[in-house]
Amino acid sequence: MYIFVIILGKIISFLSKLIGRGSSLPGVIAYKLNSNIFSKFKMPKYVIAVTGSSGKTSTSYMIYKVLKNNGLKIYHNSKGSNLLGGILTLIINSSNIFGKINADALVVEVDERFTKMIFDEIKPTHIVLLNITRDQPPRQGNYKSVYQIIKESINKDATLIVNADDPIVTTLSKEFDNEKVYFGICKCKDSFDDLESFALDMVYCPKCNTKLKYNYVSFSNLGDYYCPKCDFKRPDLDFEITSVTDEITINNKYNIKVKYDMLYLYYNLLASFTCCSLFIDSENVVKELNDISFVNDRYNKFVFDNRNIEIINGKNENAISYNQAMNYIRNKKGIKTIVFGFEYISKRYPYQDVSWLYDIDFEFITDVDKFVCVGPWKNDLATRLSLFLPEDKIITVDNYDNLNQILKTTKGSIYAVLNMGSEILFKKGIGE
Amino acid sequence: MKLTIAYLYYDLLNLCGENGNIKVLKSILKDKADIKYLTIDDKKEFEKYDLVYIGHGINENVKLALNDLKKYKNDIEKYIENNKFFISTGSSYEMFGKKIDDVEALNIFDYSSKTFEKNEVFEVNAFVDDCSSTIVGIINRTSSNDNKKNYFLSINEGIKYKNFIGTYLLGPLLVRNPEFLENLIKKLTKNPDYKLENKFAINAYNDTLARKKYKKYKD
Q1: What is the DSSP secondary structure assignment for residue A400, as one 8-state letter?
Q2: Does the ipTM exceed 0.90?
Q3: Number of Cβ pairs < 8 A linking chain A and chain B
Q4: How do residues A371-427 score in pLDDT, each as one tens digit?
Q5: Any idea which fold A41-291 has?
Q6: Quick check: B27 and A357 CB within 8 A?
């Protein structure tokens, strides 16, 4: 019977690829036909799962690429289909009709809210825990509920690869006796002395409820924290970014060139490096990462009309990715014109909640000439900005159509913080 | 006269952009208000405050804050009875009831709260009990209570007693509701002629009301 389901899954997969919907539909159907289907597959020796609130897609892609280019046979849910259906589709496509997956490893990105269901089925041998942060309220409930879900899903024999700079995933990892590998970032040019933002999750010690202190903060609540009262602190790092210049150096030895200095890129690279180093020689990891870190669709830079334009695309409509973008802009010198737009708040949820706009630390950006708010949420965004910017520095527009005219009235370098997909509209709007 | 605003547990109960409420008060009142950011173990002097604000947080943090706030039960009761302004949004308003699950709460109002497994989300567009304004906002909670005072007319939610307002609505409630904010500022500053001039906030509020999916909530 299960052979039939696998064959059918493969047929559906073939057909749905033709109509461009191949990434999760076959898995969804196969699971409906037989909810025990996962147990019929023989998994490869290694199953690497990457989860967390942000960075999953890039990190899992980098791990996949590095291992694959080093001669390992790897399957990966590269289209970001990170729910049960998507992962089952991957498995159906990777296996023969008897359910055997002929590969060295599966590398799967797993949605952090569905780890329980998925880990139970795929039984990862390695789990990369990137971070847990607040998300849009309707999507997530709260970060503590995500913590609880991941906690219930971790299998005892999996190696945990943990972002030690994040006190939340670190606390989570300490609840387990599993083998653990910790990674983190040293104090560098962009570090802060202390917590800055108000919008922080878990700034109190999980053991004794004392407010945590930091030797330095890398970003948000990530950094070198310790409890002034008890022994809770950032664990010793197995893999550390030991210096940051125009390249990052890991463990004083391995250099990776970075195209743009955005902190989430460092964390994603470091997580990938750490994970891959458990399988292959670090020298070979670094070689591959140097090649692929240049491929990035989140960032674009060009000169137009004698002005520097930098485009930073956010994927999630939540504070985390936007805060990283704002942090990046904040570190740039000179007069700035910022274009900020998004077409929808969430693709999956019908709510029009904008509370997360207030968790973005716009206030730290100085030397703003104009802030251009674009799209159906222009007034909500402008309201947020009006709490610290004078009204005449804020421009609201419905769409990108006359952006060129508007930008002519502004000064300085242009930073466009956009949604994935609106980059085309932006470029059309400026007439490029 | 300078106003004193206390933002309590700013680092524990601030899960969904609640700090926006303080930012908007600051941007309007400027040097007419002194804002105190206080958390557990900080000394609270309720007799000195004109407005107290507490926001939404995870249940564990509510319990931490409650433990601290219990020391001030009498002060808080006196503060509320004296018609001073108190706004408690999201899960924090559970602290003023009798119980949160099995934990004794402040027992100032007559309701008890219980935690449940899955979170519950709904958007709100409702008249408040004096019909002075329509409140928009969102609720996302993992617990609820049996409060029957119903500050909001069209939904079973919220409490108003004298100038104490408690509601599960979360986030930057004051920013999203300019009419409500204007009324609050009028009363706080004792200036009945005050007009809120933030055109963006007013436009955003109108956008919210105009959006299609809100229409179905209307009576």
Answers
A1: S
A2: yes
A3: 126
A4: 999 999 999 999 999 999 999 999 999 999 999 999 999 999 999 999 877 888 999
A5: UDP-N-acetylmuramoyl-L-alanine:D-glutamate ligase (3.40.1190)
A6: no
CATH classification number, A298-429, choose in 3.10.310.50, 3.40.50.300, 3.90.190.20, 3.40.1180.10? 3.90.190.20
User: Are the Cβ atoms of A391 and B200 closer than 8 angstroms?
Assistant: yes
Q: Does B39 touch chain A (CB under 8 A)?
A: yes
Instruction: Note the pTM of the prediction, 2 decimals.
Output: 0.89
d(CA B82, CA A349): 43
Q: How far is A405 from chain B (nearest CA, A)?
A: 22
The verdict on B175 touching A (C-beta cutoff 8 Å) is yes
Chain A residues with beta carbon closer than 8 angstroms to that of B12: 204
> For residue A403, which of A426, A373, A432 has the smallest C-alpha distance?
A426
The residue extents of the domains of chain A are 41-291, 298-429
In angstroms, the CA A309 to CA B68 distance is 50
User: End-to-end alpha-carbon separation of chain A, Å?
Assistant: 56
pLDDT at position A225? 96
Q: Which distant-in-sequence residues (6+ apart) come within 8 Å of A383 by Cβ?
A: B175, B198, B200, B201, B203, B204
| B146 Cβ contact list (under 8 Å, min separation 6) | B111, B112
- Please give the residue of chain B at the shortest CA–CA distance from A221: B11
Pair of tokens at residue A397: 């527009």
Alpha carbon distances (Å) from B152 to A65, B114, B169: 55, 21, 11
How many of the other CB atoms lie within 10 Å of CB of B149? 16
3-class secondary structure, B188: helix
Q: Does residue A204 sit at the B interface (CB-CB below 8 Å)?
A: yes
pLDDT, tens digit, for every residue of B115-152? 887 788 888 877 776 767 788 888 888 888 888 777 77
Nearest residue to A200 (alpha-carbon basis) of A185, A215, A217, A184 = A217
Query: For B64, what's the count of Cα atoms within 13 Å in the CB-facing half-sphere?
Result: 25
pLDDT at A21: 67
| Domain at B3-218: CATH architecture | 3-Layer(aba) Sandwich (3.40)
What is the rounded average pLDDT for all residues in chain A? Answer: 90
Interchain pair A382, B204: CB under 8 A: yes
For A382, the closest of B19, B121, B200 (CB atoms) is B200
A359: chain B residues, CB-CB within 8 Å: 16-17, 19
Check CB contact under 8 Å for B17 and A358.
yes
**Cβ under 8 Å to B: A residues 347-386:** 350-359, 376-377, 379-380, 382-386
Name which of B100, B98, B52, B94 is nearest B75 in CA terms: B52
Nearest CB to B23 within list A145, A355, A387: A387
